What does this fold into?
Amino acid sequence: MSCERTSSVLHGYFDGELDAASAADFELHLERCGECVRALAELESLRSSINAAQLYHRAPDPLRRKVLADVGSPQRLANMPSHKPWAWLAVAAAILLGSLAGWQFFLANRTGASPPVLTAELIDAHLRSLQPGHLTDVISSDQHTVKPWFAGKLDFSPPVRDFADQGFPLKGGRLDIIHGRAAAALVYGRRKHVVNVFIWPVPDKYNPVRPGSQQGYQWVEWHNAGMEFYAVSDASSNDLEQLHRLFTE
It folds into this structure.
C-alpha cells in the first residue's frame, strides 16, 4: 500500500519548503514509514549523483553556429516584434539542448566512456551499503543460498559465485535500485576491503571492459552473457580486474 505523503509532503520536506511544525510532523512520520524513508533516500542519491556528475559543458563552437543559423541571427531576432524574440529564443534553447544531448551521447559512444551519472549513482550505492545494516539482505558465503534468495525478487537470475579460494570470499547479496531499475548487488571481501558487484540484464552485444576511478573509488564495468556487471570498491584497480577475470572465466 502506497503512502499518500510520498507524493504530497515528501518533496516539500526534501526541498526545505515546509514550515517548522510541518517538517517536525513529517520527521515523526518517517520513523514509522519505510516507503517515505526509501523515497527520501532515492532523492538524496539522485541529488548527489547530479552534483557529482558535473554535467554542464559549453557547447562546441560548430554546434553554436549551427543553432544560430537554424533560428536566425541575433540581429534578425532583434528586428522582430517585441513579443516574438522570446518565442524564438525558447525554440533556440530547445534546439540547443537537444543538439547538446546528442553531442554528449556521440562523445560517450566514441570514447567508450561510461555515463558519468551512472558511475556516480553506483558509487553512491556502494557508499550507502557501507552504512551499518545496509551491506547485505542475505548473509551467506554459500552461492547456493544467495542465488535462490533473489528468485521472485528480480525479473532475472544473477550469476552468483564464490571466489574465496582466489581471495574474494562471497559475503552475501542484496537488492538495489540503479538508474531506476532493480539490480542485484553481490558483496565480496578483498582483504580489508568491500567490493560491490552490481548486476542487471542488458542486450547481449560486445562492449569493451571499462575501468575507471572517481572520488577515490575504483570501478570496472563489463558485459557477459546478457548481463552488465559493475564492480565498485576502494580496493586497487588490479584487484577489480582480477575479479572481472574470475567472473568471465
Notes: Residues 85-111 form the longest helix (27 residues). Strands lie at 138-139, 170-178, 181-190, 193-201, 210-214, 217-224, 227-233. Residues 101-113 have pLDDT under 50 and may be disordered. DSSP finds ten helices and seven strands in the chain.
